[in-house]
Structure formats: C-alpha cells, structure tokens
Write a structure and sequence with these properties.
Keywords: Plastid. Pfam families: PAP_fibrillin. This is Plastid lipid-associated protein/fibrillin conserved domain-containing protein. It comes from Coccolithus braarudii. With 331 residues, the chain is of the alpha+beta class. The protein has 2 domains: 3-223 and 270-326, no CATH class; 228-258, no CATH class. It is 26% helix and 27% strand. The protein is built from 7 helices and 12 strands. An 8-stranded antiparallel beta barrel has the order 2-3-4-5-6-10-11-12. A two-stranded antiparallel sheet has the order 7-8. Helix 2 packs antiparallel against helix 4 and helix 5 (228-243) runs antiparallel to helix 6. The two termini are 34 Å apart. Residues 1-22, 28-34 and 284-293 have low confidence and may be disordered.
Amino acid sequence: MLALWAAAAGLSSARWPQLRTACAPLLAGPVMSGPCAATPARQQAKRVLFDAINKFDGMKERDGAVSIDFGVKGGELDKDSRAPSNLAANGGFYAVSDDVGRAADSVLQAVDALELLNPTADATQFFGTREGALCPLHGSWCNIFTTAADATFSAKSKRGDATVYNRVDGVTGRVWNVINFLGTENATGPPALEQFRVQLSATALSPKRLELVFRVVQARLTKLSVPLPLLCFPLLIAAFRRLGLPALGGVLPLLLSAFLVKVPALPLPLFGRRVSLTFPVPGPALTSVLFFFSRKERPRAYFDVLYLDDELRVHRTGQGNIFVQRKPLWG
C-alpha cells in the first residue's frame, strides 16, 4: 500500500539546476595517492580508464547518447528476463554510431586491465557490522560509466537527463540507489519526478560479492495529479449507498468510473513543496512465485567488485552490466 506524506525537505525549485553538477566527477583531475593507489602501473591503468571514459563522453556529446525510456518498449529492460538491458551486449552503443560503440569497447577493455591490479582483496570486510564504516565500500559512489540501460539517461528521452549515485552504509548493511532527474532538453523547470530512490538490504557472500534484496522505493515529486477514476470511484460507492442503489459489489461504480479513464488527471496544488511516495518492493518469496508462474528465471540481484580503492569502484552485476563509479567530493 502506498504511503503518502508531504515532504517540505528537499531542493527548492530555485536550486534544481545545480543537481546537474552535484555528482559530476572530475575525470581530468589528479589520481589520488594513498595506500590503494601507490603503484605506477595502477595509476597508469586508472588514467587509461579515465581517458577512455572522457573519449566516450566526447563521442556521445558529438553523436548523441543512447536514448532510453521506461520499460521493455523503451529499451530499459530486457524483454525476456525483465532485467536491465546491457547496452554493450545488445549493440545499444553501436546503434548511436560506430565511434560511440568503439569508445565504449575501449572503456570495457580498460576495465579488464584495471581489474588485474585491484588493490583490495576483501572489498566486503566489516560490511554489516559495528565496524562497517571501515568497510572499503562504505560511502557514496557516483556513476561515471555504465552499460546498464536503467542507469543511462539522456535529455532527449522522455525520462530526461539524470545523475546517478549509490550510497553504501557498511554499518547497517543497507544500500541506496539514487537518481536525481534533471529534466528533458530545453526544460525550464524541475521535472515532475525529481528524485527516485531504491533502498536495498545487502549481504556479503564473499570478499568481492554483495547480494542485494530490494526493499523500498521512494519517489519525490514536484507535481502531483490524481486520476479522476481513482477519485470518483469511492465517491460513487458512497452515492450508491446513500441513495440505496444496488452497487453489485462495486461493479457499477467501477464501470462508471472507467468512462473517465481518458480524462486528464486532476492536478493538486503543492505550493512549491515536494511530495514523496513510498512503497515496498515485493519480497523475495512473492517474486519467486511470480516468476514461477511466468516460467521465467528470476534475475539474480548481486554485484561483484572488480576494482576498489580510495576513490574508484568498478563492479559487475549479476546480469553482466558494468558500473564505473567515483567518490564524490562530498563523500
């Protein structure tokens, strides 16, 4: 059941453009020094990766980004597994241009080379314990490259552009995936869906693998509209009861409400405030039952850490998607 509350907290409409740079990594900046970035070979491999990502971003700027919209039809999810589509595996990058595709290949080759130089043997050490703040994964991580379609955004798509980051709490064993939407091309104000947050619980299965269970989804809205059928149905039920008319278990009011499906939703004034919607994600048992009856294999939710140091994290999901993430300045 949806839980609705008014959220005065959050960014004001005057601040929303700053979201575009809040999570922007400094790829051209110096490679951090420290115990996890000490060897010249490792520093060179990281520079090669950052240069490859810079070139990939340049090709996207010139030729365009992969345009992804919601669901299977929008290319976000695989039609068979319903897992996030892999843009490297399905040719999504090459669909933009050969240069974008080759640039993405170069990033993945740099990832393979860097994995061999991973300085962190136990990425999940202390995870989910009182000493979890010492876990190498603990903290925030901003996306700078990914093959996952559900984390790929473009101002020219219906979803609009967005910044994506991941927050790992090594003490509680919780993970937050956060998407800050920036709006579509030529947008003059904040998008209706301003932020999307997914809370997951995580369990360390090995020194490099975290298993994930989706728990809660939160959506922060700048605009809220109520579909008229949803609004009219309870009113019609009450009217039928008051007039003593047979409602046939709610069937007649439901049919009458259905005529309003194509009528535009009724906007509710928020007076500059934000509204957050929170709803639970179906648990593992229910998900297993649903996939059993659909005769499809349930996607495994986990990621393997390929490389991790003080500033850079690279991991591969159970569906084979690659994420390259960097520590933001705010930590």
